[in-house]
Amino acid sequence: MTDLKGWCEPRFAAVEAALEASLGKDDVGASVAVRLDGEPVVDLWGGYADADRGVRWERDTLVCVNSTTKNMTALCALVLADRGLLDLSAPVADYWPEFAVAGKERLLVRHALSHTAGLPDLSGATTVEDLYGWEGVTAALAAQTPAWEPGTAAGYHGLTFGYLIGEIVRRVTGRSLGDFFAEEVAGPLGADFHIGLSPDDDHRVAPLIPPPSLTEDHTAVAPPGPDGTRQEYDGVAVRVRDVNSLAWRRAQIPAVNGFGNARSVALVQSVLANRGSAGGVRLLSPEGCAPAWQEVFRGEDRVLRTPMAWTVGFGKFGNAFGWGGWGGSLVVSDPDARMTVAYVMNQMIDRERQEDNRGMEIIMAAYGGLR
User: Fold this and answer.
1) The whole model's pTM is what?
2) Active-site positions?
């Protein structure tokens, strides 16, 4: 029997059972949270924060959620748009003049947010260390030629998403994406989520554990193409050991290096599911949330090599929207049900070798609670 901590409303008992089953099978440590109408109805955690199972996963344990961070970065753009400071239909170059070269003069902000900008690769970065130089990466992106006419196709912008949206936010506000998020989103909500982690929080971090049978040199790779070949996302080989490094924690890579737990992820994203507010704090107007679930593109994603629907900042799945991270974390919001479900873990699973249904089972259990 797994020793779970936290609480959940009785009607969501299936969520508790799903987490308990996952911790008894594939997970080492994990947390799950569900919010309904902007209020918490499930907040559970359990297992261990280390591979040796010697340190308990606590209420305030943090973990790098990889691309689940994109949900936070997209929300920052929607907040600015709702305040009238950012026009989603304006050219990126209106805010970032150096961007207006190499066929990007009419590349719109919504293209950058919907993975249709044609800039899925970082031409100027070849190592993880290159990712830590914000000015170098964004200057290279500003000079880069799109791989396709912006808005006509989609290709997952694994790393470039964060630099594109982050630089737009910096040009509009004068603040880095991580600082804007901390001051304008996490701060007002009281959310324990960080893009750029302080040394004071290092003791709370549960390092990511590589998939079974793999080592910390395991890298994130795109799905195989028709010829069977693979490539690292954006041409940079990000390994598990990189994600677990101090340099990664201190940097701001707004597509992939957010640190939090299910409680904080669900709290922040429930703002969108609940028409702009959560826990009595309003961040956006109801109208300002709508781009999160309004479809911008549907078709074959050139990087993920699978059919995808993209909204302004999120993947769209039926009536729900959200996104997940390398290894298994995810968050999904349903604006019709006003529900947000988040799952965060430290044990990664290699989907090339093993099917990973952990997060989906949590989500389906949450929907069962609605019925």
Assistant:
1) 0.96
2) 67
